[in-house]
Amino acid sequence: MLVVLISPLVLVAVLVVWARWSLLVVTVRGPSMEPTLRDGDRLLVRRRPLARVAVGELVVLAHPAGPDAAFHPAPTGANRGAPTIHSVKRLAGKPGDRVPGSPGEVVPAGRLWLLGDNPGFSADSRVLGSFSADDLVGTVTRALG
Q1: For residue 33, what are the CA distances in angstroms to 25, 52, 94, 128?
Q2: Residue 34: alpha-carbon gap to chain centroid
Q3: What would the pLDDT profile of 115-134 be if each residue is shown by its tens digit?
Q4: Max Cα-Cα span within the chain
Q5: DSSP state at residue 57
Q6: Dihedral angle at the C-alpha atoms of 58, 60, 65, 69, nearest 10 degrees?
Q7: What whole-number percentage of the chain has pLDDT above 70?
Q8: Residue 94 belongs to a domain with what CATH number?
Q9: Does some domain include residue 1?
């Protein structure tokens, strides 16, 4: 019988690679998600494909950084490789779902309907329309304190 022992160093290296590939830490900036999240909160985000994200979950999107980035998200695939910022919003609709508050309107294919928990201070789908599903990074798993 052949017994293979994995070196603790190799195990640690594998875990670090897995964590860097599947997890991300982001910091909340601004009041758009109050009272759920506050400015300065640090969040642990699990990278997930859209198929594994449920309506109602807090999601993180990545889009190019710039002076108007929060108010003018880039079109699908634009500026890949440019510095990015992350936005935290609540997923209110996936492709094919009805748009909240708009009877008869559905979320288009490849798009997401996102809402901030603080409507008066959130650049979200109520103002900007749908967001590209390609910009989805993952879901918020917990606040880090």
Answers
A1: 17, 22, 19, 16
A2: 16
A3: 999 999 998 999 999 999 99
A4: 67
A5: S
A6: -40
A7: 77
A8: 2.10.109.10
A9: no
